[in-house]
Amino acid sequence: MKAIITGGGIGGLTTAIALRQRGWTYEIFEAAPEYKAVGAGILLGANAMKVYERLGLARYLEARGGYLKQLYIKDYKGNILQQIDNNMLEHSYGNRSLPIHRATLQAALLEHLQQPVQTGKQCIAVTESANGIVARFEDGSEAEGDILIAADGIRSVVRENYIGSNGYRYSGQICWRTTVTMELPPEEQVTTAEVWGRGNGVRASFMHVGGNQVYFWFTKKLPEAAVFSSDEALALIRRELSGFSGYMQQVVARIDPALLIRSALYDLSPISNWHKGRIVLLGDAAHATTPNLGQGASQAIEDAYVLAECLSHTSSYPSAFQEYTSRRLARTHKIVHTSWQLAQLTNWKGSCAVALRNFMVRRMPAGMTKRQLEFLYNAGL
Ligand SMILES: Cc1cc2nc3c(=O)[nH]c(=O)nc-3n(C[C@H](O)[C@H](O)[C@H](O)COP(=O)(O)OP(=O)(O)OC[C@H]3O[C@@H](n4cnc5c(N)ncnc54)[C@H](O)[C@@H]3O)c2cc1C
Questions:
Q1: What is the pLDDT along the chain (381 residues), one digit of tens a residue?
Q2: Residues 128, 137: Cα–Cα separation, whole Å
Q3: Domain parsing of the chain, residue ranges
Q4: Is the CB of 307 under 6 A from ligand 1?
Q5: CA 43 to ligand 1 centroid distance, Å
Q6: Model confidence, pTM
Q7: What b/e sequence results for 362-376 when a residue is b if at least 16 CB atoms lie within 10 Å of its CB, and e otherwise?
Q8: What is the whole-number distance in angstroms between the Cα of residue 26 and the centre of ligand 1?
Q9: Is 293:376 a contact under the CB 8 Å cutoff?
Q10: What are phi and psi of 123, to 5 degrees?
């Protein structure tokens, strides 16, 4: 059996690796003309690392990423609001969360493919017949397979043309990300904090992602069309973070404005229909989320594993798609929903509202925190 995969992001690449291990053949098509080293980092949750463990990639990635002992949410004065012990995650769920440079992750996944990605192939149309499915690309070429896995991201053309959606939701926040080349002091290398400012979506974080690379990100509530030059964006970041305690200032001082990547943070209004005929959605194409739980890519990675598993134990793709959807839908919807609520919580403004917000997060009952960790990291795969 052969799958056509449209989209060579984290979801598509992981799917290709997982499918191959289950005896499927695939062809994978990416719209971008070439892969570029993405200048940002990512936190792969312990749940995503469980998948990479099963695919035989965990040690390879760990050797190239950072090593975190503690992950915090703090207020800008340095008070701890929430804390996750990465050793505890490993002990309880078998794997640690891994901070890694996106370019390193991308290169590792590309290296482990059996069939290279065909770049410069933007899928523009799909035709189904009784015997298979044909994807057509902007350059006039075509590819044929038994099924098509649409891993083409939040703005999925395949989803919009053949399945439909309920549209996108703007979280109210713009994010700037970058990586900085610097040596962090040893104690800063093994911890990371998402630091919440005085409301209005202001948050920032940095984390060691391997080598001498430090991933930095910053968010603020702004109109989605707000335009900033790179220098203006850096000036805004410096201004907003000027009162932040800890090592943040040293990292900010080293940011090269030309390397800042701007993203308006959207999610996909949840949809329940993930497949039609021989087409199935995966990753952000199915359930794009705001990054507040750091789970978007981790969920795409889980999808990849589950879809490959479902396809491997039946020759009927409709029942495999049905099983995949029923195993994934409730979990991903809950993540999208919780992440959205968190984004809105960080948008609160005014000193009373912010004090209440921080109090609520700091005093979250231990049982609730434990249930949330269990939900996020014990994916039941
Ligand atoms: C600021 C920010 C921080 C984040 N941090 C984290 C984090 O720490 N941890 C985490 O787990 N997640 C995080 N995420 C989410 C994560 O980046 C996404 O969930 C993840 O990249 C989704 O992977 P994907 O493969 O489904 O989609 P994408 O990464 O969007 O990949 C889709 C691919 O398809 C290609 N494509 C698009 N259209 C077509 C077409 N028509 N034909 C062919 N190819 C096409 C695109 O070029 C792209 O390469 C973050 C997101 C943001 C915005």
A1: 999 999 999 999 999 999 999 999 999 999 999 999 888 999 999 999 999 999 999 999 999 999 999 999 999 999 999 999 999 999 999 999 999 999 999 999 999 999 999 999 999 999 998 899 999 999 999 999 999 999 999 999 999 999 999 999 999 999 999 999 999 999 999 999 999 999 999 999 999 999 999 999 999 999 999 999 999 999 999 999 999 999 999 999 999 999 999 999 999 999 999 999 999 999 999 999 999 999 999 999 999 999 999 999 888 999 999 999 999 999 999 999 999 999 999 999 999 999 999 999 999 988 999 999 999 999 888
A2: 15
A3: 2-168+267-377
A4: no
A5: 13
A6: 0.97
A7: eeeeeeeeeeebeeb
A8: 20
A9: yes
A10: -70, 125
Measured from the CA of 14, which atom of ligand 1 is nearest? 25
Write out the two tokens for 3: 């799958």
CB 377, CB 335: distance < 8 Å: no
- Is the distance from the beta carbon of residue 215 to the nearest atom of ligand 1 less than 6 Å? no
CATH 3.30.70.2740 fits 2-168+267-377, yes or no: no
